[in-house]
Amino acid sequence: MMKFLVTGGGGFIGANFVRLALTEGWGTVLNLDKVTYACHPATLAMLEQLPNYQFVRGDVGDRPLVQDLLQSFQPDAVIHFAAESHVDRSINSPQDFIQTNVVGTANLLEEVKTYWQQLPPGAQERFRFIHISTDEVYGSLGPEDPPFREDTPYAPNSPYAASKAASDHLVRAYHHTYGLPTLTTNCSNNYGPYQFPEKLIPLMICQALAGQPLPIYGDGQNVRDWLYVEDHCRALYTVWQKGQVGQTYNIGGNCEKPNLEVVQTLCDLLQTLLPRPHLNYRSLITFVSDRPGHDRRYAIDATKIQRELGWQPRETFSSGLEKTVQWYLAHQDWVEAARTADYSAWLVTHYGSVLTHRP
Ligand code: NAD
Ligand code: TYD
């Protein structure tokens, strides 16, 4: 059985990856997660039910801890998801992003390098460090620009994107300088079960279920390229199995949509799945001030991973969104438990009174 040390496995994508890895028998998992606000206790509880799973609460930047875990668990791969991940929070508190995404990744790499150098030849050959990054490192596209390719120059615009770009460069340098067998993936916007309701799609679902405003930044015409989270996790498994060491792979859902269209589609889906007397979900849509420096368009060209590794997404936006909404409808206890004091404080700090007033 392969052994995966997963960082940030209590967050959205990490938890989906761990769940799939354990239910589909990809290997055993040690999950190292700091349990920040983005790690939902109910998500951790779901993972605890699965076989071949261990959890350690801790920081990826804590070198003695990481050293200890590497020595005792002896992983065949490190799958590095842990990060501060919300652009709006990075605008408010960039230092947290530098600390985890840059310093944390640097510390992790240093310990992983030492561990990998001490492995016997066969295990050293087999070992992989997979770094999960974002399309946001490439900056913003104009309406007619071709989608991001792996060789698109980096041009990060938010503190979040800059911190992820810095971590990508560190990973690249550890491969180039020390030969550490790294692979980096840059994916587009994920959606699906277990996503913390501060990101667009789960925020809108939770607001709509509460009959509260759906805040759209600016004119709602910013474009994102949507990827169903399980498709992303399967792509990562494919990269682990077949990816060429030192390479980067873009992962996307071939699904560009303006935000307003995403939210309208969501409203229409809720109208069908959960009709409520006197509630037209679309009427909850509320335009609010734009995000500072808001990137206009992201789009991924995923032909490299399709051509070289044979991966492609299984879900369309319509099938993925329906699965997502059905999951949130079936897990309202999860949604309720996510409404912590910290979460409510974030909504008030970020949106003011907009979110609580019925439009
Ligand atoms: P998330 O915010 O949902 O989860 C992050 C997890 O990391 C949480 O469980 C948190 O507790 C943990 N964590 C944070 N700081 C830590 C630290 N110092 N040490 C250990 N654990 C720590 O994030 P996500 O959406 O699951 O994203 C996972 C990765 O994918 C991130 O690296 C992110 O940059 C990248 N990514 C996400 C998306 C997306 O759409 N969600 C898109 C592109 C790339
Ligand atoms: P988000 O989910 O924060 O992901 P990212 O900024 O990493 O792409 O936002 C997705 C898009 O939705 C982005 O263009 C910003 C927009 N957005 C809103 O219009 N309103 C909101 O309340 C949020 C959170 C996002």
Question: What does the model show?
Answer:
It is a single chain. The chain has 359 residues and is α/β, with parallel strands linked by helices. It has a domain at 3-193 and 226-251: Rossmann fold. Helices cover 46% and strands 16% of the residues. The protein has 14 helices and 12 strands. A 7-stranded parallel beta sheet has the order 3-2-1-4-5-6-10, sandwiched between helices. Strands 7-9-11 form a 3-stranded mixed beta sheet. Strands 8-12 form a two-stranded parallel ribbon. The mean pLDDT is 97. The structure holds nicotinamide-adenine-dinucleotide (NAD) and thymidine-5'-diphosphate. Residues 5-324 form the NAD(P)-binding domain. One of its GO terms (biological process) is nucleotide-sugar metabolic process. It is an enzyme of class 4 (lyase).
Short description:
Pfam families: GDP_Man_Dehyd. With 359 residues, this protein is α/β, with parallel strands linked by helices.
- The CATH architecture of the domain at 3-193 and 226-251 is 3-Layer(aba) Sandwich
- CATH first level of the domain at 3-193 and 226-251: Alpha Beta
Q: What composes the largest sheet?
A: 7 strands, parallel
Bound molecules: nicotinamide-adenine-dinucleotide, thymidine-5'-diphosphate
In the CATH scheme, what's the topology name of the domain at 3-193 and 226-251? Rossmann fold
The name of the CATH superfamily of the domain at 3-193 and 226-251 reads NAD(P)-binding Rossmann-like Domain
Query: Measured on Cα atoms, how large is the radius of gyration?
Result: 20 Å
Strand element count: 12
Q: Considering DSSP H and I runs of 4 or more, what fraction of the residues is helical? A: 40-55%
With strands numbered from the N-terminus, the spatial order across the biggest sheet is 3-2-1-4-5-6-10
Catalytic activity: dTDP-alpha-D-glucose = dTDP-4-dehydro-6-deoxy-alpha-D-glucose + H2O
Family: Belongs to the NAD(P)-dependent epimerase/dehydratase family. dTDP-glucose dehydratase subfamily.
InterPro entries: dTDP_Gluc_deHydtase, NAD(P)-bd_dom, NAD(P)-bd_dom_sf, Sc_DH/Rdtase_CS
Protein name: dTDP-glucose 4,6-dehydratase
